[in-house]
Amino acid sequence: MASNKMWYTVALGFLLPFSYAHTDFFTSIGHMTDLINTEKDLVISLKDYIKAEESKLEQIKKWAEKLDKLTDTATKDPEGFLGHPVNAFKLMKRLNTEWGELESLVLKDMSDGFISNMTIQRQFFPNDEDQTGAAKALLRLQDTYNLDTDTLSRGNLPGVKHKSFLTAEDCFELGKIAYTEADYYHTELWMEQALKQLDEGEVSSADKVYILDYLSYAVYQQGDLSKAMMLTKRLLELDPEHQRANGNMKYFEYIMAKEKEANKSSTDAEDQTEKETEVKKKDYLPERRKYEMLCRGEGLKMTPRRQKRLFCRYYDGNRNPRYILGPVKQEDEWDKPRIVRFLDIISDEEIETVKELAKPRLSRATVHDPETGKLTTAHYRVSKSAWLSGYESPVVSRINTRIQDLTGLDVSTAEELQVANYGVGGQYEPHFDFGRVSPVSCLHLFLLHKRCVSLFQVANYGVGGQYEPHFDFARANEPDAFKELGTGNRIATWLFYMSDVSAGGATVFPEVGASVWPKKGTAVFWYNLFPSGEGDYSTRHAACPVLVGNKWVSNKWLHERGQEFRRPCTLSELE
Ligand code: OGA
Ligand code: FE2
């Protein structure tokens, strides 16, 4: 018991409470670029301060030199020196006014400009939550992309333009953040990395004793007693008087002895439970594993036979007059669910306009907390988004028309164009775009032989997790068109890629093992619902975390209402 208390003190001593209400900056690169400009301004004003301080020191130096010479001559022959009336006058003047002026100069504060600039800018600085958010994003990337700690620390990432590395102190900081999350796996990795860099001779203010203290605790928490002991020994070599480490050492020895005794009797039973928990763990996260593999470009489930049936073609929107003379390039990305990609479908100029319109309005995407019914931010959706209406810009309106022409679906019932920006680590975990499908609507279908867009059917946004862990209905800044306007469910998704992504950021479909890579100027399209109105669960998808670079997309969710004759209903439910 006494030794348990000891660890308890370790924990209390280190744990800092963090709140997650304001996790803003790190979610999108758009806003982080402002911070880069802020830093640039600060550097300029810091340099001005240095210049002012240097010129002040220069003046003081000159005065000292002049007086040095003068006093040298004067002290050699004071009477002769003062025999000259000008010298006598000058001595009076110097002592009465000039030394006083010098005193003022020495006391003069040159830092005003810089300090006031700093005070103004500080209001817009990221806070603790931002720093934690950015750190957690790094840890998330490390997992998703299977990056080893050393690679990440040395900044050896694919496609990076500006290589950057982590110092031992940075690694220590990451370890501490993992620690406050009780994430001992990452605590160990990062404390070990910090230690490694110090062992390799990196000059740093990071303290090995502190690092070893965290490290041994994290290792102990993960059940590796002998390694924890070895690390504590190392700590004690550096600081033999370290109280907690001495206590822990005794505790380890005691536990080891006890374990040895217990081991004699029950090894088999333990093995069994260990195996069971391992199996459970694996079963519990199949989707996560599939999702992360697809993000890394692994686990694609396309057979050569099926691949042969994927084509590319010129598409005229089913003889749409606007596209007969200039059809667009269309490629099959996947067969089931059918996902098609349009190439060169949005120009660079249009992309710039859309981004500029969206930028001032980007705000952290939120989701409904199913328990409280309130809007919150969620780790599974990390991005910033904004909505653009066709009324506010001819470009947006033109884009909407293009989607209507090429999908053959009515866009008047669609949601506004959503623009989203994912910064490094930005992601959207697996979800469906459609809301809950009401069973009544399908009954209605069979009775009336009509589309399922009956008055009964209202996508129930806000009721989270009916089928799966993360539904993306209940989106904060989404117009509540679903309920109020009764436009039915999200029948289809159109997704523009408005940037290339240096690494990561794919759109993946874990149910079917598909991944679609962002390519600037292209768009993908798929139906979320079967013609019967039933949700197509194979459309479950996710936006992989951005590893390097930044991802801009915009999407249009088309709704059921208005499509009655454009995509007629079938009688079979899952056809
Ligand atoms: C979405 C979505 C995919 C992507 O916003 O609902 O699934 O790649 N986005 O951004
Ligand atoms: Fe989606």
TrEMBL record:
<dbReference type="GO" id="GO:0005506">
    <property type="term" value="F:iron ion binding"/>
</dbReference>
<comment type="similarity">
    <text>Belongs to the P4HA family.</text>
</comment>
<comment type="function">
    <text>Catalyzes the post-translational formation of 4-hydroxyproline in -Xaa-Pro-Gly- sequences in collagens and other proteins.</text>
</comment>
<dbReference type="InterPro" id="IPR045054">
    <property type="entry name" value="P4HA-like"/>
</dbReference>
<dbReference type="GO" id="GO:0005739">
    <property type="term" value="C:mitochondrion"/>
</dbReference>
<dbReference type="InterPro" id="IPR044862">
    <property type="entry name" value="Pro_4_hyd_alph_FE2OG_OXY"/>
</dbReference>
<dbReference type="InterPro" id="IPR006620">
    <property type="entry name" value="Pro_4_hyd_alph"/>
</dbReference>
<dbReference type="GO" id="GO:0016222">
    <property type="term" value="C:procollagen-proline 4-dioxygenase complex"/>
</dbReference>
<feature type="domain" description="Fe2OG dioxygenase">
    <location>
        <begin position="452"/>
        <end position="560"/>
    </location>
</feature>
<dbReference type="Pfam" id="PF23558">
    <property type="entry name" value="TPR_P4H"/>
</dbReference>
<dbReference type="InterPro" id="IPR059068">
    <property type="entry name" value="TPR_P4H"/>
</dbReference>
<keyword id="KW-0408">Iron</keyword>
<keyword id="KW-0256">Endoplasmic reticulum</keyword>
<dbReference type="GO" id="GO:0005788">
    <property type="term" value="C:endoplasmic reticulum lumen"/>
</dbReference>
<keyword id="KW-0732">Signal</keyword>
<keyword id="KW-0847">Vitamin C</keyword>
<dbReference type="Pfam" id="PF08336">
    <property type="entry name" value="P4Ha_N"/>
</dbReference>
<dbReference type="GO" id="GO:0030199">
    <property type="term" value="P:collagen fibril organization"/>
</dbReference>
<feature type="repeat" description="TPR">
    <location>
        <begin position="209"/>
        <end position="242"/>
    </location>
</feature>
<feature type="signal peptide">
    <location>
        <begin position="1"/>
        <end position="21"/>
    </location>
</feature>
<dbReference type="InterPro" id="IPR011990">
    <property type="entry name" value="TPR-like_helical_dom_sf"/>
</dbReference>
<protein>
    <recommendedName>
        <fullName>Prolyl 4-hydroxylase subunit alpha-1</fullName>
        <ecNumber>1.14.11.2</ecNumber>
    </recommendedName>
</protein>
<dbReference type="GO" id="GO:0004656">
    <property type="term" value="F:procollagen-proline 4-dioxygenase activity"/>
</dbReference>
<keyword id="KW-0802">TPR repeat</keyword>
<keyword id="KW-0560">Oxidoreductase</keyword>
<dbReference type="Pfam" id="PF13640">
    <property type="entry name" value="2OG-FeII_Oxy_3"/>
</dbReference>
<dbReference type="InterPro" id="IPR019734">
    <property type="entry name" value="TPR_rpt"/>
</dbReference>
<keyword id="KW-0223">Dioxygenase</keyword>
<dbReference type="GO" id="GO:0031418">
    <property type="term" value="F:L-ascorbic acid binding"/>
</dbReference>
<dbReference type="InterPro" id="IPR005123">
    <property type="entry name" value="Oxoglu/Fe-dep_dioxygenase_dom"/>
</dbReference>
<dbReference type="InterPro" id="IPR013547">
    <property type="entry name" value="P4H_N"/>
</dbReference>
<dbReference type="GO" id="GO:0005783">
    <property type="term" value="C:endoplasmic reticulum"/>
</dbReference>
<dbReference type="GO" id="GO:0042802">
    <property type="term" value="F:identical protein binding"/>
</dbReference>
<keyword id="KW-0325">Glycoprotein</keyword>
<keyword id="KW-0479">Metal-binding</keyword>
